[in-house]
Amino acid sequence: MDSQDFAKTFLPEVTVDVVLLSIRSDGSLVTLLAQRDEEPFKDTWALPGVFVGRDETLDAAAARALRTKAAIVGDVFVEQLFTFGDLNRDPRGRIVSVAYYALVPEGRFATAVARNKDAVIARIDASATDDGIAVRNEAGKALKLGFDHGRIIGMALQRIRGKLNYAPIGFELLADEFTLFELQHIHEAVLGRKLNKDSFRRKMLASGLIEDTGQRRSGTAYRPAALYCFKKAER
Amino acid sequence: MDSQDFAKTFLPEVTVDVVLLSIRSDGSLVTLLAQRDEEPFKDTWALPGVFVGRDETLDAAAARALRTKAAIVGDVFVEQLFTFGDLNRDPRGRIVSVAYYALVPEGRFATAVARNKDAVIARIDASATDDGIAVRNEAGKALKLGFDHGRIIGMALQRIRGKLNYAPIGFELLADEFTLFELQHIHEAVLGRKLNKDSFRRKMLASGLIEDTGQRRSGTAYRPAALYCFKKAER
DNA sequence: CAACATATATGCTAGATGTAGATATGTCAA
DNA sequence: TTGACATATCTACATCTAGCATATATGTTG
Questions:
Q1: How many CB pairs under 8 A join A and B?
Q2: Which nucleotide is nearest to A219 (CA to C1')?
Q3: What's residue B130's pLDDT?
Q4: What's the rounded Cα separation, in Å, for the pair A180 and A189?
Q5: Separation in Å, CA of A65 to nearest CA in chain B
Q6: How far is CA A208 from CA A13, A162, A180, A202, in A?
Q7: What local confidence, expressed as pLDDT, does residue A68 receive?
Q8: In this predicted structure, what is the pLDDT of residue A74?
């Protein structure tokens, strides 16, 4: 980029949008959407997002979007996803959006939604494509998405599916202590298919990423499963 | 992103920088850098990049950077890499850069460099880290990189390494016809380690991605290897 | 025509994964 | 107290893949 280009350029707005993902114990993959109360896309649902501030990094803007638009505070797994720069993605003008995704356990997700009267839980249909995705509310009714946010959510799902093969992102979606079968359910929800129970157990135990806490999952009507936790040092 | 945010925002510049990657027959991984003849970072080497135009998508800006700053025309494999938005990455002001990477065969890379008197071939040291990377010219002298471009190149290398596991990007770096051993050399250069010849052959033949052209690589002083090509339909 | 260098094919071994069955351990009801 | 029950956990075995060694094939070169 040369200085001589400066005169010819213009100044697009830059926003950050965040796909907050969680997996519920029934196996459904969910994200948090906020209802738009103004044009454009009034009365549709959109991802939490903010304009990037003058002295704010992109990562900081993502954290602010989570804090102010999704009531998520404290440590969260957040990672940059993709940058969307189509010409007419926002009717207000040329806006480039840097998309992020975040992963939280079910409990934190529920708390965040409860604190936000404008927010809704959106179930993500497992058949994600590159072109976008359909979301439904808890009653099963389709939610109309604003902007190109369907495409952003679809890309977030693709990303975590790929990431599961080489990174321990399943742990980000679980509480501190969990059984192996619960971890398996997380993987199945992300991948959208069933996994072999014994193979999964073997691979996880051999991975060295988890350790037995010595505790058991109580309150079951059958043999309780051992509770494991994520080895912090290995992280 | 709400309309009420508009007043509070400012307008950062948005640029696109492209890491043009190729692999030479000696196994070296190379990229094209342009000498900066102005401040900031005068007399250092930088990636080809342009400011994003008013009516230009990010992908189109990347194509323009390749065309005008790297003399690369026509079809190329180009993909978005990551967006860099640190506060002081450019001393001229707040500039957000959307990085792309492109893959071309050795021949096209050499032609592009030859057409550009400001351009230089930069060999990439295989020991890439997330923090950046060192590059050297053909004489082995270290090239000083401007901006955060060392970090961008490092991330490009990480990306293609990961991508090699599930996508046939090796073909983007080769001519239309190639021997299996030549394809293996590409993979070895990307991964930075030797591969087992027989296993590689078996896996490639079983992948269904390539087909025998019936031709042989002539001009060798030993048994000529079969030439394969990439199955277009499967792509 | 034989030496040579590399391509190509084949068989063996170790590790990872899918599957089936056996065993362990908690709750619950009689 | 005891046995049925459901799930957790373990063990054995088949299958598949990658790495490795060896044997064979096919060009060039003297």
A1: 104
A2: C27
A3: 60
A4: 14
A5: 9
A6: 45, 21, 13, 11
A7: 96
A8: 92
Class of A13-164 in CATH: alpha beta
Nucleotide of closest approach to B182 (CA, C1'): C7
CATH assignment of B12-163, among 3.40.190.290, 3.10.20.600, 2.40.50.140, 3.90.79.10: 3.90.79.10
The three-state secondary structure class of A211 is strand
Q: A174-230, which class in CATH?
A: mainly alpha
The separation, in Å, between residue B75 CA and nucleotide D19 C1' comes to 38
pLDDT at A9: 46
Residue contact B85–A58, C-beta within 8 A: yes
CB atoms within 10 A of CB A213: 13
Alpha carbon distance A178, A229 (integer Å): 7
Residue spans of the domains in chain A: they are 13-164, 174-230
**How many other CB atoms are found less than 10 A from the CB of residue A166?**
9
Q: Is residue B78 less than 8 Å (CB to CB) from chain A?
A: no
pLDDT at A141: 94
Q: Which nucleotide is nearest to A207 (CA to C1')?
A: C16
Is the CB of residue B198 inside 7 Å of nucleic acid strand C?
yes
Q: Nearest by CB to A83, from B38, B56, B83: name it.
A: B83
Across residues A49-73, what is the average pLDDT? 95
- Using CA atoms, how far apart are residues B155 and B158, in angstroms rounded to an integer? 5
Rounded distance between C-alpha atoms, residue A7 and residue B11, angstroms: 15
B8 touches chain A (CB under 8 A): yes
Q: Which CATH class is domain B175-234?
A: mainly alpha
Q: Beta carbon of B115 within 7 Å of strand C?
A: no
Mean pLDDT of A108-112: 96
Residues of B in contact with A55 (CB under 8 A): 87
- The band of A3, judged by pLDDT with boundaries at 50, 70 and 90, is very low
Q: Mean pLDDT, to the nearest integer, of A174-195?
A: 94
Residue B131 pLDDT > 90: no
Task: Determine the distance between A233 (CA) and D11 (C1') in angstroms.
Answer: 32
ipTM of the complex: 0.90
